[in-house]
Automatic annotation (TrEMBL):
Signal peptide: none
Name by which UniProt lists this protein: Glycosyltransferase family 4 protein
Gene source species: Novosphingobium tardum
UniProt KW keywords: Glycosyltransferase, Transferase
Pfam families xrefs: Glyco_trans_1_4, Glyco_transf_4
UniProt-listed SUPFAM superfamilies: UDP-Glycosyltransferase/glycogen phosphorylase
PANTHER family: SULFOQUINOVOSYL TRANSFERASE SQD2
Keyword Signal: no
Domain of life assignment: Bacteria
Length: 389
């Protein structure tokens, strides 16, 4: 390999992703933004990920397809299978200075081994609480096994970056690695801001101006806490608290969610300015999920001046100031969630005050400053490896 670079403009990064653009989610949106930032600074980035004929959005940077198969029961997702000779030839030709892995799948493992054989540093970005997923599919007994597998993977990497301090602390307590930094998330303030609120659009959905709206935003999958969300709405209805529910997003659990919330408004997928309008049209954002490592949707709601009721879990704990910009409630505590929501639904002044505090807090999250942290970590690891050579 040529001499280790000392400047970002000279750096070549091989990025491995289990889902770079074929299904839209917060993690791959962050990865695409990171690639765009790196390329604007002059760095070269090559992405290795499954490819499909009709991806959810165009990829940023050159995307090299890796073999994959559809996941049983979750056919919208694909499982990367191997570093084929074709992919290995491409890697050799690209000659990266560092490898970035963003998913602990089979290809991620192979990428770490490939880098190790060439004495290249590896940075892993951790995007979700993978070990919590089995509990939503009646397989909680698998969590200790999955934790051990994740620990083996992440300890083979030179460093990790996590999207929130609360999640980084969890990773430290789980002994995943001893070099864990922060790569938080940003928000486009030109798009997500209180000025996007449009009462005429809400009326077109059959929502009266005076009716407070509880919003949900995200992929409609069970691990987002759809069961807790639904049970909480049932509790509000039993208490006779006036409200409407607006659900923004698509996913395989939509039919189940619609059956559980027959009076809710389902907008389907919203993107760009339409998404910002939908978020700003909420009066309180409810996020009961415990799987997020950061919570992009929570930050977008805050930027739009919407108070947040969230589970006191990784991600939300680093974003929401309890009793200042929202409420943090014990995960799964349906009565606690219902009480927090009731306060906002019945007190417009409280909504306005806490929503304003959240909008001010969201101004701290600028994408370029955030992505520079990852770029600086690349250079630190490359320089450290060069000294060890």
């Amino acid at each position: 390999m040529d001499q280790a670079p000392t400047d970002l403009a000279d750096l070549r990064i091989a990025l491995f992703s289990g889902n770079y653009n074929y299904v839209r989610d917060g993690a791959n949106q962050a990865l695409n933004r990171l690639t765009g930032y790196l390329m604007r600074q002059g760095a070269q980035v090559r992405i290795y990920s499954p490819k499909v004929a009709n991806p959810a959005f165009p990829s940023t940077g050159k995307l090299v397809g890796v073999p994959s198969f559809r996941l049983p029961g979750r056919a919208e997702y694909r499982f990367p299978m191997a570093l084929t000779p074709r992919v290995r030839r491409d890697l050799k030709e690209f000659a990266p200075h560092i490898v970035h892995v963003s998913s602990p799948d089979l290809v991620g493992h192979r990428a770490v081994s490939w880098a190790g054989a060439r004495r290249l540093p590896v940075l892993a970005s951790v995007h979700t609480r993978f070990e919590t997923y089995p509990r939503y599919y009646n397989m909680a007994f698998m969590e200790p096994v999955l934790l051990a597998m994740l620990r083996r993977f992440y300890r083979r990497c030179d460093a990790l970056v996590a999207p929130s301090e609360s999640f980084a602390q969890v990773l430290r307590e789980q002994r995943m690695n001893y070099d864990i930094g922060l790569w938080t998330r940003g928000v486009d303030h030109a798009r997500f801001n209180p000025g996007r609120r449009d009462l005429a659009w809400r009326r077109s959905l059959g929502i009266a101006d005076e009716t407070p709206v509880i919003g949900f935003l995200g992929r409609l999958v069970m691990e987002k806490g759809l069961d807790v969300f639904s049970d909480t709405i049932d509790e509000l209805q039993r208490r006779g608290v006036a409200h409407r529910v607006m659900v923004v997003g698509e996913g395989p659990a939509r039919e189940w969610f619609e059956a559980r919330l027959p009076d809710a408004v389902f907008t389907g997928f919203q993107g760009g300015d339409d998404l910002a309008r939908a978020v700003a049209g909420m009066d309180v954002f409810f996020n009961p999920s415990v799987t997020e490592a950061f919570g992009n949707v929570t930050l977008e709601a805050m930027a739009c001046g919407v108070p947040v009721v969230a589970a006191a879990a990784t991600g939300s704990q680093s974003l929401v100031d309890d009793r200042v910009s929202g409420r943090l409630v014990t995960p799964g505590a349906v009565h606690g969630f219902a009480e927090a929501l009731r306060r906002y639904l019945e007190d417009p002044e409280l909504r306005e005050r806490h929503g304003g505090a959240g909008a001010r807090r969201a101004l701290d999250y600028d994408w370029d400053q955030i992505n520079k942290v990852v770029a600086d970590t690349y250079l630190r690891l490359v320089r450290r490896r060069a000294k060890q050579a």
